[in-house]
Specification:
The chain is mainly alpha-helical. The protein has five helices and two strands, in the order αααααββ. It has a two-stranded antiparallel sheet. It is globular.
């Protein structure tokens, strides 16, 4: 029932273990890994101001959570294994909450700053999209927008004649008709 949650927590634990391993054995690789992770999070949210706000909010909340939980973990000296398990579960739960709060960061900013913050955000979104985004995309090519791919329509028909789009209006020239390949499905 909660398989998605288990996979998410397992993935986060594996990433944390890998990050600690790299930090211990190759500390010079950490800044590049952190940059890649931040750009990935930023790009997953559209690569614009919203994505940047999401990434910054998430990082700030995660750092606050880690510092708070680490101080709490150091303060207790009893039941090390039980405390570690509790710490990991609490960290996973708080990480999900941080993700939610990072997702609604514009609403939190407006709640904090009122109508002035609302208009500042509207202006910031406009300025970012038209002025800053091209500069950012030049500096960080991973954030460039990919052109949307057109969906193919038509279902599962085996063969359909198609006409060249350059053909004249309404006139069908048999030389311009081609047969599409049948859809091939692999059975597993």
């Amino acid at each position: 029932m909660f398989g998605w949650l288990r996979r998410r927590i397992r993935g986060q634990v594996q990433q944390a273990v890998h990050l600690v391993d790299v930090g211990v054995h190759e500390p010079r690789a950490l800044p590049g890994m952190l940059r890649s992770a931040l750009i990935s999070v930023w790009g997953a949210r559209g690569g614009g101001l919203f994505g940047l706000g999401y990434a910054v909010t998430f990082v700030v909340l995660e750092i606050r959570t880690l510092i708070g939980n680490a101080a709490e973990l150091v303060g207790s000296g009893q039941g090390v294994m039980a405390e570690m398990l509790s710490y990991l579960l609490r960290l996973g739960y708080e990480s999900l909450l941080n993700m939610l709060f990072a997702f609604i960061w514009p609403a939190l900013a407006v709640q904090w700053g009122g109508s002035a913050m609302f208009w500042a955000l509207v202006l910031a979104f406009i300025v970012f999209e038209w002025g800053v985004r091209p500069l950012v995309e030049r500096r960080i090519p991973e954030l460039r927008r990919q052109p949307k791919r057109k969906r193919k329509r038509g279902g599962d028909a085996d063969e359909r004649p198609t006409q060249d789009p350059e053909a004249s209006h309404g006139e069908t020239d048999p030389a311009q008709l081609t047969l599409k390949e049948p859809n091939k499905r692999e059975s597993t």
